[in-house]
Amino acid sequence: MSDLLASIDGPIVLVGQSYGGMVASNAAVGNDNVKALVYVAALAPEKGENTPDLLGNLPGATLGEHLYKEPSIVMVLVTVDPGGSESEGGEAPGKTAVDEDSMSQPGASLLSYPATIPLSTRTLNRLANLIRAHRAQRRCRWRRLDPGRQALLVLAHLRNGDTYARLGAGFAIGTTTAWRYVHEAIDLLAAIADDLNACAGRAVRLAYAILDGTLIPIDRVADQRPYYSGKHRRHGVNVQVVADPAGRLVWASPALPGATHDLTAARTVGLIDALTCCNVMTFADKAYQGAGGTVRTPFKRHRHRPRLSRWQKAVNRSHARIRALGERAVATLKTWKILVKLRCCPRRSTAIVQAILVLQGIETDRYAG
Questions:
Q1: Do 208 and 281 contact (CB within 8 A), yes or no?
Q2: CB of 153 within 8 A of CB of 145?
Q3: What is the chain's pLDDT, residue by residue, as a tens digit (369 residues)?
Q4: Closest alpha carbon to 246 in 136, 151, 332
Q5: 0.90 exceeded by pTM
Q6: DSSP H/E element including 211
Q7: Contact 170, 79 (CB under 8 A)
Q8: What are φ and ψ of residue 52, in 5° steps?
Q9: What burial class does residue 343 get, using C-beta atoms within 10 Å of its C-beta: 0-12 exposed, 13-18 middle, 19+ buried?
Q10: Is residue 79 within 8 Å of residue 111, measured between CB atoms?
Q11: How big is the chain by its Cα radius of gyration, in Å?
Q12: CB-side neighbour CA atoms (13 Å) of 212
């Protein structure tokens, strides 16, 4: 409000009602254009008074317990320290991201800028309600952030890939607190994610399904061999993705070590058996040769068939046109920037993927869980 008043040329008369009297009084400080303040059944503070002091002088006042800060998903404060290093998003919690005293000192080496999160308020409100219900169940009396602000912090981490250090500085909390808030919300979302049976129930209503695998990069770990993908030549985890005929994300499997072949991964999570039992026609690439059941793969050259016939090539082209739409589901999954490279323990990757699956379903308004 102070910025709005500063943009107005000429004399200003502020009128405040109820709590608006306090807001108007604070906004008028230091503005020479404000010529008068009008209070209509409002809080009229004296110099040095604040809202709790005024409410304490009014027996029976219920304003304090009804004040609620409406969460916003369109902006989050991100801070950058140009002179220091920034810890990565998946590192274990350590020191506080920034000293609060240094933030208030003039000339501090922190820069801030507004950043948007490309999600709807429906997703924010759904996650905030989930966190609020969890706090009520645990009878939490006080937290540094209300459920709406915690939901905003979690979405900024998952969608934008903001690190714990930046989130801690932007939300004026410690790095450890940001790490704990994110882990708590991810576990809540993962607990309500669709399982394999729910995936099969949704796929049976489709004309056909598209199956594909993707590698989510991770940091190199001590036990690195199981996570190294020879195909991609990097460390990661293997996630199987099921898409509908339009290329929309239907389901994502638990993460397996990156060295796992796509066919082995699909069999391990029971995906091929589930789709076959439901008689769902499934299109997949050459990596799923020999899957059997209702999985259809293109023709492949081998030692006994060095060349493909004309009709086999035509079938492969038609198959590729259908299967190519499945890449949209993989792209949708990786619009969540946290999956560009996971910097946490690989064992946490399954919970993160399941949490993103729930949030993406809420965003597209197709999640019934």
A1: yes
A2: yes
A3: 777 777 777 788 888 877 677 778 877 888 888 888 887 877 777 776 766 666 666 665 565 555 544 444 444 444 444 444 444 444 444 443 344 444 444 444 567 777 888 898 899 999 999 999 999 999 888 888 999 999 999 999 999 999 999 999 889 899 999 999 999 999 999 999 999 999 999 999 999 999 999 999 998 777 888 899 988 899 999 999 999 999 999 999 999 999 999 999 999 999 999 999 999 999 999 999 888 889 999 988 887 778 888 999 999 999 999 999 999 999 999 999 999 999 888 899 999 999 999 999 999 875 444
A4: 332
A5: no
A6: strand 209-217
A7: yes
A8: -60, -35
A9: middle
A10: yes
A11: 27
A12: 22
Residues in the chain: 369
Question: Which tokens is 36 given?
Answer: 């008068």
> Are the CB atoms for 239 and 229 separated by under 8 Å?
no
Which pair of tokens denotes residue 159?
């969608």
Place of tokens 């590729």: 320
Residue with tokens 């008689």: 279
Tokens 């199987």: give the residue. 240
